[in-house]
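Page 37, continued from 36.
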């Protein structure tokens, strides 16, 4: 059996078109062009490429990217001052500080300094708490992307036996909250979990975000299961390198019912979910109802 490939690129393109249309409606009806400040500190090559893709994606849907590139030696107080200025700037609807930050800067202090209403990454403790308690919140983009992809396979997640491998604050934990909201039955695994292969074999829905290249093997997967692979790992290949997920795709595709590829699965959807959050933030700040995307 060969699994259905969950085509994140194509699904993201559809959502991007809907976001573009909703942005055009917001601009023509209310004169608002959603603005997202994207802050990069230092010269990390992967971060630079993420920031460039995000800015391009904003342009494409008619939003305004506001790029801030600070030197690697920037101090915490200086970055906090920039965040405060962006909090106070009405033309800025969302603020994204690209991680990782250089070692002299505490990411927690910076993320906690962002106005929760402009926190389009959804990492502020207030938004995390709101998500946990079922209140409306700006929610981290990657977990939202995963849910949207899962729903292209499962109209309902009610009671679905689900394993979340990974418990980070960025992916695993918020995804668990969203899965619970959909009434999935969720087990959480992490680096201290015993008998991970057996747990995986039980899951009808297997979500993996661990940052370990091709760790999940084909014979760990329940036949017909849906597999969501969040991992992005660069591995050596033929004198160069290539990107692989946390799941061994070549093996898993023979067993799973549906699977996200890497690249081309969760990644493209994540960027579009950032656009959705920026649009949501802009609407909320203008006292308008949430957009229908
Ligand atoms: P992270 O903060 O490093 O967290 C990794 C989690 O995986 C931790 O909870 C850790 O357990 C668990 N873990 C590590 N090794 C394990 C193992 N062998 N077995 C079981 N659990 C294990 O990583 P993250 O930020 O969540 O990112 C995870 C992956 O997703 C990375 O490859 C990252 O690049 C990728 N990612 C992709 C996107 C996207 O848009 N596609 C977005 C964000 C992240 P402990 O808690 O016990 O340490």
């Amino acid at each position: 059996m060969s699994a259905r490939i969950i085509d994140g690129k194509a699904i993201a393109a559809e959502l991007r078109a809907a976001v573009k249309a909703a942005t055009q409606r917001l601009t023509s009806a209310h004169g608002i062009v959603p603005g997202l400040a994207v802050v990069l500190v230092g010269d990390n090559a992967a971060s630079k490429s993420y920031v460039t893709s995000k800015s391009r994606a904003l342009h494409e849907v008619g939003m305004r990217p506001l790029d801030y590139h600070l030197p690697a030696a920037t101090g915490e107080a200086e970055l906090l001052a920039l965040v405060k200025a962006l909090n106070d700037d009405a033309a800025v609807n969302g603020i994204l500080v690209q991680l990782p930050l250089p070692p002299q800067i505490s990411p927690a202090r910076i993320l906690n300094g962002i106005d929760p209403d402009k926190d389009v990454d959804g990492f502020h403790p207030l938004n995390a708490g709101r998500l946990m308690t079922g209140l409306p919140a700006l929610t981290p983009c990657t977990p939202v992307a995963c849910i949207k992809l899962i729903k292209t396979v499962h109209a309902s997640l009610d009671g679905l036996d689900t394993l979340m491998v990974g418990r980070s604050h960025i992916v695993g934990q918020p995804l668990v909250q969203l899965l619970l909201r959909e009434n999935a039955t969720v087990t959480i695994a992490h680096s201290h979990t015993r008998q991970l292969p057996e747990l995986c074999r039980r899951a009808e829905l297997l979500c993996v975000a661990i940052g370990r290249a091709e760790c999940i093997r084909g014979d760990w997967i329940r036949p017909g299961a849906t597999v969501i692979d969040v991992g992005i790992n660069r591995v050596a290949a033929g004198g160069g390198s290539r990107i692989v997920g946390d799941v061994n795709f070549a093996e898993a595709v023979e067993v799973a019912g549906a699977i996200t590829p890497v690249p081309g699965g969760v990644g493209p959807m994540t960027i579009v979910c950032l656009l959705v959050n920026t649009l949501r933030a802009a609407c909320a700040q203008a006292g308008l109802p949430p957009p229908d995307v």
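The first strand starts at residue 4 and ends at 5. Flag for discussion at group meeting. Residues 142, 165-168, 170-172, 189-193, 196, 209-212, 215, 230-233, 266-267, 270 surround NAP (CB under 6 Å).
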